[in-house]
TrEMBL record:
The chain crosses the membrane at residues 24-43, 63-81, 102-128, 140-159, 171-191, 238-258. GO terms for cellular component: ATP-binding cassette (ABC) transporter complex. It is a multi-pass membrane protein. Residues 23-259 form the ABC transmembrane type-2 domain. One of its GO terms (molecular function) is ABC-type transporter activity. GO terms for biological process: response to antibiotic. Its main location: membrane. The keyword Cell membrane applies. It comes from Paractinoplanes atraurantiacus. It is found in: Cell membrane; Membrane. Keywords: Antibiotic resistance, Cell membrane, Membrane, Transmembrane, Transmembrane helix, Transport. This is Transport permease protein.
Length: 262
């Protein structure tokens, strides 16, 4: 079979295995939605200077968190588990290639990210009356979503190389996830409330640009005044996420191994 065929076959297996773990299904999807409900309810009666409710702002920003937690953590923890329980080592003895295995994982992460985003957008629209964007913004949403998923997946795969034991993967991977949410304008908005040096640190990482991009998609154009640069910077968002895709790919090539002893 071709690499693509083996990859799609592996992806089908990955999705089935995930769906059979009800605990993983519930917590993967429920946690970001629960946070959105909490933040949206607590701060829902507050409005920005542009007249947009805080719940709508959180609804747009939390999409970035949903993708990061789903793609980064799922990929990193899944790869660490496969390496520790010998799944990767056994697969290495079959015709499947590393590219096919990674493609299978990407299919799983893509499917989960689509479902997560649908859930978060649904909560934002149905619970907090977040307006859905027009056709041109959906086009931006498409490339932003794809770049975000690829970036987070590759980085999760790369970071899994430093995870010594699968049981600690969740704790290790969630540390940067939670920290980046606070400094990137997901849990704290507007991000200009933070010290300027912290904003500059957040600008190095992809989460800040992901959240900013999704706010462009779902919020009125006047909200760009609330961003650190006073504009949406779509070109810069694409460049930063594209650069992190390349960085993530290079790190994956350097760190990927079939077993813990290699």
């Amino acid at each position: 079979m071709s690499t693509a065929t083996m990859g799609f076959s592996r992806g089908h297996v990955e999705v089935l295995m995930f769906l059979r773990d009800r605990t993983a299904v519930i917590f993967t999807f429920a946690f970001p939605a629960m946070l959105l409900l909490l933040f949206g309810t607590i701060f829902g009666d507050q409005y920005t200077d542009a007249g947009v409710s805080a719940s709508n702002v959180f609804s747009a920003s939390m999409i970035a968190y949903g993708i990061l937690s789903t793609a980064f953590v799922t990929m990193g923890a899944g790869l660490a588990m496969d390496r520790e329980d010998g799944t990767l080592k056994r697969l290495h003895g079959t015709p499947i290639t590393a590219t096919s295995y990674v493609l299978g994982k990407l299919i799983l992460v893509f499917a989960l990210s689509v479902a997560e985003v649908i859930l978060l957008v649904g909560v934002g629209a149905l619970v907090f009356d977040m307006p859905l964007p027009d056709a041109s913004h959906w086009l931006t949403f498409t490339w932003l979503f794809l770049l975000s998923v690829i970036t987070c997946s590759l980085l999760g795969m790369a970071v899994s190389g430093i995870v010594k034991h699968a049981r600690t993967a969740g704790a290790i991977l969630n540390v940067p996830v939670v920290a980046l949410q606070f400094i990137s304008g997901v849990f704290i908005y507007p991000v200009t409330q933070l010290p300027s040096w912290l904003i500059n640190v957040a600008a190095i990482f992809p989460v800040k640009w992901m959240a900013q991009g999704f706010r462009y998609v779902f919020l009125p154009d006047v909200m760009k005044d609330q961003e650190p640069a006073g504009q949406w910077e779509l070109g810069r968002i694409a460049l930063v996420l594209g650069a992190w895709c390349v960085i993530g790919l290079v790190l994956c090539l350097l760190t990927f191994r079939w077993s813990r002893d290699k």
